[in-house]
């Protein structure tokens, strides 16, 4: 039995679908079963990663776990939740991130480092998936593209090797069901690094309505973001975009090596999600 956490999220629900299609026994962990619409044969269980004791019923009979961690929000429960997982399961595949720092800290990437260290010390057989930016993160531009045909944001030249959520899921399913992945960390990316201006243009092509990128200053962006997220997180986001303008995200061939199919392009992702931008 394989337990998938974050099973209603963009990656988790695709992992569930991949495993179910392969005939695996799958259990989907969700906080609200009413929101879940899994494939036929998938068991849905209620649980919250921030509440370690709630995980025990979900882990009964489970051999492997695909862990999507609610970064920062549930970090206080990380050690307890991993202890419970290790009491039941044998293997864990953790959805981390490309570019995790060497030392844990109070940032998003630092939270992933903390989780990796805890997992390494848990006694579980582990594999870390370290994807680049999710192509789905560009959905935050949907309202602007619909209303104005433009995205106002920093660093038009910041280049990311964005990855389709279905490619992350395909790798996750193969690692969960295959051998030889223990103790490995896989950097996963899309097939090319595209600037943010290019990303917006491709979304416009997919929708049939031209879209453009209008660059604003980091100070302007910061004044907007600090109203909805902690200043330290805002500074981390802006610094990352400045870094990607100077040095594009790397591109790896790992998706193809592990799945046998090339990573999907951002153009393909935009076509798959065109309706979300219309």
Automatic annotation (TrEMBL):
Pfam families: NAD_binding_10. This is Nucleoside-diphosphate sugar epimerase. It comes from the Bacteria. It comes from Actinomadura craniellae. Residues 6-137 form the NAD(P)-binding domain. InterPro entries: Ergot_Alk_Oxidoreductase, NAD(P)-bd_dom, NAD(P)-bd_dom_sf. The lineage of its organism: Bacteria, Bacillati, Actinomycetota, Actinomycetes, Streptosporangiales.
């Amino acid at each position: 039995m394989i337990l998938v956490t974050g099973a209603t999220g963009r990656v988790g629900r695709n992992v569930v679908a991949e495993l179910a299609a392969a005939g695996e026994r799958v259990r989907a962990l969700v906080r609200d079963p009413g929101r879940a619409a899994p494939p036929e044969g998938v068991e849905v269980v209620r649980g919250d990663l921030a509440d370690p004791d709630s995980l025990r019923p979900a882990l009964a009979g489970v051999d492997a776990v695909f862990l999507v961690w609610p970064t920062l929000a549930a970090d206080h429960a990380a050690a307890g939740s991993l202890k419970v997982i290790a009491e039941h399961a044998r293997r864990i595949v953790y959805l981390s991130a490309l570019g995790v720092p060497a030392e844990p800290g109070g940032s998003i990437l630092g939270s992933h480092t903390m989780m990796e260290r805890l997992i390494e010390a848990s006694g579980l057989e582990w594999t870390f998936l370290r994807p680049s930016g999710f192509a789905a993160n560009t959905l935050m531009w949907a309202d602007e593209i619909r209303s104005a045909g433009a995205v106002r944001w920093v660093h038009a030249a910041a280049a990311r090797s964005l990855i389709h959520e279905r490619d992350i899921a395909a790798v996750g399913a193969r690692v969960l069901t295959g051998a030889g992945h223990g103790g490995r960390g896989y950097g996963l990316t899309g097939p090319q690094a595209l600037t943010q201006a290019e990303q917006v243009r491709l979304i416009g092509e997919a929708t049939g309505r031209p879209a453009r990128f209008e660059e604003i200053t980091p100070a302007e962006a910061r004044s907007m973001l600090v109203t909805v997220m902690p200043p330290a997180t805002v500074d981390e986001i802006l610094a990352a975009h400045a870094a990607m303008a100077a040095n594009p995200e790397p591109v790896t061939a790992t998706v193809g090596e592990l799945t046998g199919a090339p990573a999907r392009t951002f153009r393909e992702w935009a076509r798959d999600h065109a309706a979300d931008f219309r």
